[in-house]
Write a structure and sequence with these properties.
The chain folds into two domains: 2-209, Alpha-lytic protease prodomain-like, CATH 1.20.1510.10; 215-334, Cation efflux protein, cytoplasmic domain (Alpha-Beta Plaits, 2-Layer Sandwich), CATH 3.30.70. The protein contains ten helices and three strands; from the N terminus they run αααααααββαβαα. By secondary structure, the protein is mostly helical.
Length: 335
């Protein structure tokens, strides 16, 4: 497990470093294209690349920090820094969009002065393709290594690629129609798209910091628990989980037969942990074990129980609603 974790950390660091190097290279090309053409649309693309470099630098720092082991002052590790990183990246994207809009409005008022747009179109086309490849690589690596920071950086880079595509459209339209006013107008449209991406990143960051339920992960978690259920598991309730970086912390209550000894309950926890870590390699599990009472015999599927007080005559569905809800005996009494 430690070797796998080390490998994932190396993949994250490698992806972040590649993103930073590519970002700096693209910025140089775009600034040169802006200086040559004077295009507001190309300026918007260059501004987006500046934000990309700042955000990627922060992403790299957060990946290094989140990979540090838990310590006495951070017993759950340092993974939550990734949520801060994604949120700040979203804020920087919004700031870039506002700067682009201001510059474009000024260009509309003053009247755009464009030149050598063909060169600008070639440079931005190249940058768009590179960022498209990089963005998909970062998102794929982020999902593979459970890194919100890399996923956020990948989405940012894809936004940069979309920005570049919009710039290409603007430049080509100006070349074809000769209407230079199209350049700042399309730059504003591109900036509005960037604003949406920034908002989504901030929203996702807040959701993580507030431990909002990740429904896809909840579906996957409950499906896994139900698939490994044993007949002497009488009830599972109050399932909760939260994510910090690549780690997921899971806890729930499990009712077992009252005659199980400490070794048997410990073996059950080990079994469940090992099974869950097949789906969630960095999962940490805490189970509160409850013992059964006579009133639960009517729900129990453990046919080999020597202490049964009555035959099973009640059934309930083992589904997500049950696992996250209250104990079965409380639900039954409520009805």
């Amino acid at each position: 497990m430690d070797d796998q974790n080390s490998r994932l950390i190396k993949l994250r660091k490698k992806a972040a470093i590649i993103s930073l190097i590519v970002g700096v290279s693209m910025l140089v090309f775009k600034i040169l294209a802006y200086l040559i053409t004077g295009s507001a649309a190309i300026f918007s693309d260059a501004a987006e690349s500046i934000v990309h470099i700042l955000a990627t630098s922060m992403a790299l720092f957060s990946i290094f920090l989140s990979s540090l082991p838990a310590d006495t002052s951070h017993p759950y590790g340092h993974g939550n820094v990734e949520y801060f990183s994604a949120g700040i990246e979203g804020l920087l994207i919004i700031i870039a969009a506002v700067v682009i809009i201001i510059e474009s409005v000024n260009s509309i008022i003053a009247g755009p002065e464009l030149k050598q747009l063909g060169i600008g179109a070639v440079v931005i086309s190249f940058a768009s393709v590179i960022n498209l490849i990089l963005g998909n690589y970062l998102i794929r690596t982020g999902k593979k290594t459970n890194s919100l920071t890399l996923v956020a950086d990948g989405k940012h880079v894809l936004t940069d690629s979309i920005t570049s595509f919009g710039v290409i459209v603007a430049v080509l339209l100006v070349i074809i129609t000769g209407i230079e006013l199209l350049d700042p107008i399309i730059a504003i449209l591109v900036a509005l798209n960037i604003l949406v991406t920034g908002y989504k990143l901030i929203r996702e960051s807040i959701a993580g910091l507030m431990n909002e339920v990740n429904q896809k992960m909840l579906d996957k978690l409950t499906d896994k628990i139900i698939s490994i259920k044993k007949d002497y598991w009488i009830d599972i309730h109050e399932l909760r989980f939260w994510q910090s970086g690549d780690k997921i912390f899971i806890d729930f209550h499990l009712i077992l037969p009252y005659f199980f000894n400490i070794r048997q309950t410990h073996d059950e926890e080990s079994y469940i942990r090992n099974e869950l870590q097949k789906e969630f390699p960095q999962a940490e599990l805490k189970i509160h074990f409850d013992y059964c009472i006579d009133d639960l015999c009517k729900f129990c599927n453990f046919n080999n129980c020597e202490y049964r007080k009555e035959e099973k005559n009640k059934s309930f569905v083992w589904d997500q609603k049950k696992l996250i809800g209250s104990p079965i005996y409380k639900n039954y009494k409520d009805h």
